[in-house]
Amino acid sequence: MNKINNCPICESDKKQLVISLNSDNEDRYFQFSKIKYGGFIDSWAKSIEVAIDCCQYCGHHWYRAHPKQDDLLKMYAAGRPLRPRNSIIDNNPKQKIIDELKKIKKIGNGGGHLLDYGSGFGNWARAGVNAGYIVTAYDPSKERSSESKKIEYTLIHEKKYLLKQEYDYINLEQVLEHIPNPVETLKEIRDYCTPGAILRITVPNILHSSEEDKLWKEWPFNNQSNHIMAPFEHLHGFTPMSLLLLIKRAGFKPVSLGLIFIYSPVLLLRKLLGSFIPKIGTTTLFVEPCS
C-alpha cells in the first residue's frame, strides 16, 4: 500500500478530506467490486484506507492510499466492462478520432511516429494507423490490449522497449488519472520525445463530471456507470489548474495559443474562458518538452 500525504501534483500540505468509505456507502463499494471486478477489491476495503483528499491550493483530488502497481494490474486483469463489449471494442476506429489525429500532424514537427501511451483496447492506435502514422501502442495490461483482433501497429507491454524509438507525437487519452505517480510518468515520457515532439493529454475534469451535483452522493458507484473517482480505477481527479501544474513539474509547457487555434478554435476558447470559470475549463492539453 502507498500513502500520499501531500498533494501529488503541487506538493501542498493543505488538504481536506472529501469522502471516505463508511456505513452509508460501503454497500455501493462492494457492488462495484462485484460487478466490475468479480469481488477482487473486496479485501481492500479493510486493508487500505479508502478516502479521497482535495488540495486546497490546486483543487486536485486523490486517494489517500492506493494499492501497489502490481496489485492494480491484477485488478485491471480481473475487470469486466460495465457496458456491452461491442460498444467498447471496435476494430474500425471512429472517423472523428482519425480526423483529430490528422489535425495534430499540422501542429507538430512533421514526423510520423506516434506513441499511444496507455493504449487500452487500441482504439486510438488503430486510428493512428488510418491517419498515416507509424504507431507504437504501450499498455502494461496484456489482458486489456489483447482485445485487439487485428493489430496493424507495434504493441508492447514493457517500458524498456519504448527507449528503442523516439516519437514525434505521444497520445495519453484518459491515462494519467489511473497512474499512481503521474509526475514521474511524464518525466519518463520526456525520454521518448523527438525534438519538437507534441504530447496530447486528456483527463476527466472533476469540476465538470457527469455526476454533477450528485458527485459525492453517488460515490463510489451508482450501479450503472463508472464514477469519476471510481476506486481504485481513477486514483486522481484533475482540475484544469492541477493539470497545468503537473506538466510544469514534469518539464513540459503548453504549445502556443496559435497552434491550439489551428487545431481547434473551440478548444482555445475553452482554455481562455477556463481561466475565469474553471468548471468549463479544459483538461485537454497539447504540450511540448521545455528546452
Task: Describe the protein in words.
By secondary structure, the chain is an alpha/beta fold. The chain is 29% helix and 20% strand. It contains 10 helices and 13 strands. It is globular and about 55 Å long.
SSE layout and pairing:
Layout: E1 2-3, E2 15-20, H1 26-37, H2 44-47, E3 51-55, E4 61-63, E5 65-66, H3 69-77, H4 95-105, E6 113-117, H5 123-130, E7 134-138, H6 142-145, E8 154-156, E9 167-173, H7 182-190, E10 193-202, E11 236-237, H8 240-249, E12 252-254, H9 257-263, H10 265-274, E13 284-289
Parallel strand pairs: 6-7, 6-9, 7-8, 9-10
Antiparallel strand pairs: 1-5, 2-3, 3-4, 4-11, 10-13, 12-13
Helix pairs in contact: 4-5, 9-10
Keywords:
291 residues; alpha/beta; Rossmann fold; 2 domains; 7-stranded mixed β-sheet; 4-stranded antiparallel β-sheet; 10 helices; 13 strands
Estimate the helix proportion, in percent.
Answer: 25-40%
Strand content: 15-25%
Question: In whole angstroms, how far apart are the ends?
Answer: 36 Å
- What is the string of SSEs from the N terminus onward? EEHHEEEHHEHEHEEHEEHEHHE
CATH architecture assignment of the largest domain: 3-Layer(aba) Sandwich
Largest sheet: 7 strands, mixed
What would you give as the CATH superfamily of the largest domain?
Answer: Vaccinia Virus protein VP39
Stretches where pLDDT is under 50 for at least 5 consecutive residues are none
